[in-house]
Amino acid sequence: MPTLHEDDGVFVLDLGDDENRFSQDWLQAVNASLDTVVAASGALVTTGHGKCYSNGLDLEWLLQHPDELPSYRTEVQELLARVLTLPVPTVAAVNGHAFGAGAMLAVAHDFRVMRADRGFFCFPEVDIDVPFTPGMAALIQHKLTPAAAVASMTTGRRFGGTQALELGVVDETAAEGAVASTAVELVRPLAGKNRDTLGTIKTTMFGATAAELRAAEPAAQP
User: What are the strands, taking DSSP E only, across 36-180?
Assistant: First the structure.
């Protein structure tokens, strides 16, 4: 389960040591941690430990609860919108695999640092026949260049850290064991920014995308 600790004004949210999928308990724990970070006006680094940053949606739970897909997707997209507009500086320290909604969570941060030698960043939706929702597509297209969005959204390719850096998906790479510390040092100079001002700036920048993520699911056709 996610855990939070502070490093001299920078809060490090460890997403867990397994696949870190978006279970109900996981979502609740992450949102509670975000409450703490915002209240303290600190900076935020998210990371995992082990092989994965996050593999995204809890598909096993969804197979058992198909009727809850709309409400579950609403919760997931609310988290993405919240991170996108969080009124504190944010960095995703991508320690390993980031797939699907896990990769979207990384994209929602202000900056991304990825392990150089292992782990893949991937949007597999085209290969698993799950089209992006309008909100998810808007998030990726807003945060990545057009070339990076096409390369990642339409191919299902798995990008290692070096490839992700070349494509502009991440801002820096780091060696094993240094991903989180690199992210912390990247964001530390930004800690202490005025929360209200930064929140207003991010809402202005990303308000339309956040609204798309928070939009109600279209009604099913009869």
Answer: 43-47, 52-54, 90-94, 97-99, 111-115, 121-122, 172-174
Contact of 171 with 92, CB cutoff 8 Å: no
Reported pTM = 0.95
Q: Two tokens at 184?
A: 């912390």
Closest by alpha carbon to 34, among 69, 65, 80, 97?
A: 80
Query: Which pLDDT belongs to residue 35?
Result: 97
State the number of CA atoms in the 13 A half-sphere of 98 facing the CB: 28
CA dist 90 and 44 (Å) reads 5
Which strand ranges, in their side-by-side order, compose the sheet holding 52-54? 52-54, 97-99, 121-122
Neighbours of 191 (CB within 10 A): 19
- Supply φ then ψ for residue 116, to 5 degrees: -75, -35
Contact 31, 18 (CB under 8 A): no
- Give whole-number Cα distances, 57 to 3, 22, 73, 75, 156, in Å: 19, 5, 9, 11, 16
Residues 116/173, Cβ–Cβ less than 8 Å = yes
User: Looking at residue 145, what is its pLDDT?
Assistant: 96
Among 178, 27, 186, 13, smallest CA distance to 101 is for: 27
Question: Residue 208: phi, psi to the nearest 5?
Answer: -65, -40
29-61 residue pLDDT tens: 999 999 999 999 999 999 998 899 999 999 999
